[in-house]
Amino acid sequence: MSAVADNGATAPRKSVTGTRLWVAVLFLLPALVLLGALVVYPIGYSVWRSLYDAGGDGFVGLDNYVDVFRDDSTLTAVRNTAIWVAVAPAVVTALGLIFAVLTERVRWGTAFKLIVFMPMAISMLAAGIIFRLVYQADPDQGVANAIVTSVHDTFADSSVYPKARPNAQVSDLKASGGGSFTSTGTVEAGTPALLPLVGIAPNRLPGEPEDAKAATGSGVTGTVWLDFKLGGGGEKGQVDAGEKALEGIKVEAVKDGEVVASATTGADGTFTLPAEADGAQLRLPGSNFAAPYNGVDWLGPTLVTPAIIGAYVWMWAGFAMVLIAAGLAGVDRNLLEAARVDGANEWQVFRRITVPMLAPVLIVVLITLMINVMKVFDLVYIIAPQPTQDEANVLALQLFLSSFGGGGNYGLGSAIGIILLLLVVPVMIVNIRRLRKERER
């Protein structure tokens, strides 16, 4: 039946909701204005600007897009962005799934979820500053290296005299490779060996070292000590009063390249070797002087990108966990119990029932994170130090550097922005199609 008024005129058109069309447009107008000002206009202007040179005066066509794939730093950014898209969303989604499933069975699951989700309340800038401190190379400042060095030192002995060296003027100890020092002469029973070392300030010795003592006895003995004392004085190459002993130095007796005996200096710096050491050369192994283990160079060229991805995972694992936990709450428990009754173990239930039923939620989380990592900027800019920022570069950071970070090339920056948009669009289309299919169900 056609809508006709009493006077024969056609009734005003109405929208799907029954509201007059002009009223609907009036209410939508503010949103449309904002959408145009904040989305449509910037995209259109970026497309136009990408076709001009750095100053915006000369039309260059697609030259800026060609330059994107000629510049080494931009190619590095493309490679790193691909790594981010391939690794970060998958890791975050997997961790979120694991956390959601495991916390469902523990009493303190809510508290754990709160702790894991808390980093989401922190801005990218603040998280970048936090992890810049976490990844500090100095174990006394960086938490990551403090943990690594603690674990390392638990299973490996560390040197306590890393800068010590023989006094070349009075000692016959010579460098023999691998950081070790070997005497040119041999040791004899009844004649104590004197092995003076320098290179360490007496007040920098670890602990509370005792005064050195000259070795005595008829066996193969000797003394390792710091041949220097504050204020000077004494005779070089001789154990003088007030000179400090070097405790814990390993001494090896070597004959024909073979170690026949070894000993460790005591608190007074003296050592005693067995009789078979008579006539052998004395060697101080390099382990006595090796530099202490200072951990991993997290922000070096090799590990800077994985380290920054780790910071991202720390921030976004809570987001994935909460969404997946919400989806898990809607899973039919009867199916899980039926599978267990049929003899399936927990891994089989998880792999064949839980994960397939959570597939729509997992896809939403994965796609959302893929779009998010394409735009990652703050973490890379804050965490990566200047010397390795090129190795950690991503497209969003390269856009900033090309346009505002000293490059001043707004044409190239606009081209990178359009490329980022083109990379995001396919993911958005897939997500929109999936949402439409969900509505049709």
TrEMBL record:
GO BP term, pick one: carbohydrate metabolic process
CDD domains xref list: TM_PBP2
InterPro entries tied to this protein: Ig-like_fold (IPR013783), MetI-like (IPR000515), MetI-like_sf (IPR035906), UgpAE/MalFG_permease (IPR050809)
ABC transmembrane type-1 domain sequence ranges: 78-431
Cellular component aspect of the GO annotation: plasma membrane
Gene3D superfamilies, per the entry: Immunoglobulins, MetI-like
PROSITE patterns from the UniProt entry: ABC_TM1
Transmembrane segments: 21-43, 82-102, 114-135, 311-331, 352-371, 410-432
One Pfam family it belongs to: BPD_transp_1
Swiss-Prot/TrEMBL keywords: Cell membrane, Membrane, Transmembrane, Transmembrane helix, Transport
Membrane topology note: Multi-pass membrane protein
Compartments, as annotated in UniProt: Cell membrane
PANTHER family tied to this protein: BLL4140 PROTEIN, DIACETYLCHITOBIOSE UPTAKE SYSTEM PERMEASE PROTEIN DASB
Similarity section: Belongs to the binding-protein-dependent transport system permease family.
Protein name listed in UniProt: Binding-protein-dependent transporter
Upper lineage: Bacteria, Bacillati, Actinomycetota, Actinomycetes, Kitasatosporales
